[in-house]
Amino acid sequence: MDKPSLPTTKRQGHGDKLSFYDFGPTPFFALQKDQRFSYCLYVPQDYDEQASQTYPLVTLVHGTGRTAAQYRDFFADFAEEHQCIVLAPLFPVGIIEPNDLTNYKRIQFHDIRYDHVLLWMVEEVEKKYRIASGGMAMYGFSGGGQFVQRFFILHPEKLRAVSIGAPGVVTLLDEDYDWWVGVRDLKARFGIGVNIDAMRQVKVQTLVGSKDDATWEITIPRNSPLWMDGADKQGANRLERIEALASSFEKHGIAVQRDVVAGVAHEPYKMVDAARHFMAEVLRS
Q: 88: how many CB neighbours lie within 10 A of its CB?
């Protein structure tokens, strides 16, 4: 549904002119550096272009269903209450390979670096609005949880907090295995080494439902093109895999807030409250 018809005024933004549709729940904007990708925002309605207040950035990464706008909407009241700006990227199905569903989850897909795509989106938002320093908070569930935990490994200096929700496949801080199972070849693959000290400065939540034990979507057979040596180290289901991820972080001195939502299976919108609560504590601190 379109926004209600309200009186509009010309509003001067942070470097650019802002319009009525640059506030509240925005449309999807094409990323100017690569228009295959887009993002929407939630900007507090009382954002004042003439003031000096800065706004923390909260980034929400969708799962396989690409429900970017729905996640944004779940955080609309949160954005108003905590005076932050919400960014929800959209990474479409079928980029390069028709019907491919997983492209963004492991960061690199063909010649696309999805971490760079997201950072370009952040740059665009920073040019348009007054974004607070100190890094963004980021939440993702399922496929989004895969992206978020790998972005955390690659770019901890860009983050103040991460909430990693029920990833189907995880990357451990294990130097005995290559990416995506471990991080042995991180420098050669991405030109980035693991910065454990920076990772320790980020608030980390792992989040899963107590009944999230189905394996039909996340089992990787040995004859699958996704199979890698060490893939069987993670555990059989999301409960075991997020436990392995949290333990891997903790072994390196990275504090983890482990949250399990009772009675919930792999149900993304039932996890939002726990993620919002964690994010609220981060922003208040």
A: 28
